[in-house]
Design brief:
Elements (H helix, E strand, L loop, with lengths): L1 H24 L21 H13 L22 H9 L2 E4 L8 E4 L13 H7 L11 H4 L3 H10 L16 E2 L7 E2 L20 H16 L3 H34 L1
Antiparallel strand pairs: 1-2, 3-4
Helix pairs in contact: 2-7, 6-7
Length: 257
């Protein structure tokens, strides 16, 4: 009995450890550091870049990847107008209900709705993607080591062929920055794949930079407010410290006399 229990525990431990061991075995290449507008203590999101990034997500990424934590109305924070947001939301059909007859129905999306997922459930997503499950991108910047630098490097790091001597893996794609280098997702971005509404040339690097900016905003939409509050707190504490020091000197000066 004890031996069976011990064997079961060991087997469970091996199963749980397998993904971590596989990930550790994969070669990890540090992505090059990029200059982001939202980097640093006083960084802010480039609204024009974030809007272009949303266009990239909408026209390219949304076919496979959900962003369940973001509502259409949140797009006002990157500079889209209420009319633009209503029009974007109305482009999709959202399941709602039940109605008075107890039945579910579909209606045009509203600004208050969350981004519509491309698949009804995980099994449907895996069935369409050869068993792979496209991750939700709402927090992808926070969920991956390297953050924005890693996502940009991943999107621009595909090769048509692996380096000499590296055996080809069927159904996989070689990427310089993905751990282990082989990734199920094919190259998502190609030059001139979309036409930017503001006329910016849609190069692969530009689209990667823009969608990364959008994903960074989606992961931390309160980033600018939090930093502004931090600066105000630091200024307040600095002034308070100066006043405290001045009062201390005044008190001690009076005591000496």
């Amino acid at each position: 009995m004890m031996r069976s229990l011990r064997n079961a525990v060991v087997a469970a431990a091996l199963v749980l450890a397998t993904p971590f061991a596989a990930n550790a075995a994969g070669e990890v290449v540090k992505p090059p550091a990029q200059d982001w507008s939202f980097g640093g203590l006083f960084g802010t999101f480039d609204r024009a870049s974030a809007q272009r990034g949303f266009q990239v997500y909408k026209e390219v990424c949304a076919a496979c990847h959900a962003m369940k934590q973001i509502s259409y109305r949140n797009l006002a924070e990157i500079g889209l107008s209420e009319d633009e947001i209503r029009a974007i939301a109305a482009e999709v059909q959202v399941q709602d209900g039940p109605n008075d007859d107890g039945e579910m129905f579909e209606r045009p999306g509203r600004a208050s709705d969350r981004f519509r997922s491309p698949f009804p459930n995980e099994r449907a997503a895996r069935a369409v993607n050869n068993g792979a499950y496209p991750v939700d991108l709402s927090l992808i910047i926070k969920a991956r080591g390297g953050g924005a630098d890693y996502l940009y490097a991943l999107l621009t790091g595909y090769r048509d062929e692996p380096p000499p001597g590296v055996p080809v893996m069927d159904g996989m794609h070689y990427n310089d920055y993905f751990p282990g280098h082989w990734i199920a997702m094919g190259r998502p971005l190609n030059d001139d794949q979309i036409v930017y509404a503001d006329g910016t040339p849609a190069t692969t690097s530009q689209m990667a930079r823009d969608v990364t900016t959008f994903m960074a905003w989606a992961a931390e939409p309160e980033l600018e407010q939090r930093r502004a509050m931090g600066v105000r707190v630091i200024l307040f504490l600095t002034i308070l410290a100066g006043m405290t020091y001045a009062v201390k000197r005044k008190i001690w000066a009076d005591l000496k006399h």
